[in-house]
Amino acid sequence: xxxxxxxxxRFVMGFLGLTIYDLIANRGKRPPFNIRQxxxxxxxxxxxxxxxxxLENVALTMTSASNVGIIVSVAPLTTAxxxxxxxxxxxxxxxxxxxxxxxxLGVALVMFNGKIEFELSLKGDLLSLLATVGWAIxxxxxxxxxxxxxxxxxxxxxxxxxxxxxxxxxxxFSGFSVNRSDFTxxxxxxxxxxxxxxxxxCFVSWNFAVNALGVYKTSGYIYLTPLITLFTAALVxxxxxTWMALGGCLLIFVxxxxxxxxGDIPDKLAS
Length: 271
Known about the structure:
mainly alpha
């Protein structure tokens, strides 16, 4: 499977899974139709599904995985900067930027894990950075959704639907070609995991967290991803953990702590 083929298949599976769950949870009741909300769902599908994942996958073919991993971890910082201008629902605090910068440095140390290998690849690195902008816009759009009228699974399903609407023409133009023989038991199992687990369940969890905690708090926890990956790789794959990586873990926790502290920036700057 090509990256775009995997992307399309996993979100089709995720959409079908969410549709079945939503029908059962809502007992057949149809959610209200609102053109403004539908436009928000369409924009969220474009930014959070197509732009973020597609650009990230393309970037991986142009630059190293470590470059992509480090640059994508800028997402919370990008979200905070855009939120300063477009997110009036939450108060911006200067310690968010300070904490996120410290945590980002920690992520870089964890990703390197004792191996300093960072070679710039302009196109790939730029696409990775644009992917973080897409995710930041997606997270901000979530705060505009009328969560009182829609269940989390319902509007996540709608976001997936519009994401597929945007993605299918791109896939057809790119020469999408999948055969039945490609769906071996192993491939099907992995695709189901990506579709129902890494797509449907994770998107529902993220959307729920943004609704409950807010964009800034939820985005900050992205910094824990490489930390969890580090220790999982050590336990499962027996990969060594260096002092550099441990120092990075400490910086991540310090950065998250600082980003959660109270301390508002002056009103003139916030406005």
